[in-house]
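Hi everyone,

Forwarding the result from last night's run.
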Amino acid sequence: MSLHEQTKHLSPVWARYTTIVADRAEGIMLYGDDGRAYMDFTCGIGVTNTGHCHPRVVAAIREQAGLLLHGQANIIYHKPMLRLVEALRQVVPAGIDSFFFSNSGAEAVEASLKLARHATGRTDVIVFDGSFHGRTSGAMALTTSKGKYRSGYAPLPSGVHVAPYAGCYNCAIAKAVGRDRAGMSAAAPHEAGCCGNPLERVEHILHANTTPHDVAAILIEPVLGEGGYVVPPASFLQGLRALCDKYGIMLIADEVQTGFGRTGKFFAMEHYGVTADIIVAAKGIASGLPLSAVMTRKEIMDKWHPGTHGGTYGGNALACAAAVATLDVIIQEKLVQNSAAMGAVLKGELSELQQTDSRIGDVRGMGLMVGVELVDKNGAPDAALANRTLAASRELGLLLLTCGTYDNVVRFIPPLVVTDAQIHEAVGIFRTALNS
């Protein structure tokens, strides 16, 4: 039976990057059923941080599968969830000590807003241009990275206000004073300073589009994911924290893609010296099993009225066991440190390539979350070049993804176990693909 015959009954709503039929995977490598091997720098979209099928994670799943597959959280406590709470308490920011578990990032994002609304007695939320928070109805209302994610689904929930995200590469003010490309966009986050306009716009929204006493939360990705791997200046996040403190608003950090070592810190907000009131996590938490978390202070969580939220599968025993093993691997194998070190190598090699190729408008990111913005001769987004480069890379054995509103940013998100030699090989493939 042909692949077309085998797959024709699957929904076409999944936008497909490849037609690879995976047979198995290990570490950073993925193997097709035709015997071809690929370096997987997609990481399941930032999920397999410990590498594919890490032996210790697999062993934990196998052991738990023989003990308890499902125990519903309203009915029983189970040991994997209790162990996970204790493991998370060792890595979350100081003060975060209360947890709710769900299945996906979008579910956790919506749950975080429900919590913020109960905790504050307010209704509205401020999000940012270019953000991605999921595809459920509530999350779609918060997502602005691509119009197609919302197309045809109106009306969406109201009370959502969109502010500009602080990214220097595409900021007209930053460019006007020469802080583009090799300037502010290349600065380390703790060194970067914002022009102040994005924060002024947030303050304006608080008084023109809504009022401070109507806003329950400001929800932000500490690094834009689907929006193009944009790293904001540290002063922007610090300014948002000050605004939230000023008006009694909850600051929610969507760390779905940035969490669990991806950016070279356990959580990306650590780069800015800012602690959110609520942290949303998923993707890298369980090495591929469906699990997400809403994490906050107990005095906030205690304001969530019993029975007003829940879920049948949230905090599944098998997923929690995988998450405990995942955290153990990340800590014991020093994968956060490896992410920082290998991220510097990756960004450095890509930045060297930028110096000799005008089609690379920008190289940016944190840790092993790095984006390469491809542009045409006029500096406009070049999605066609990005797509051709992905196809050529795939033929040479390297799997990459795009992101950004115009799909012109090539993103590098390898597992955190990646080595210097593997990064060098991947960048070499990317260079060849780009030049082909």
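The chain has a mean pLDDT of 94.

Cheers,
N.
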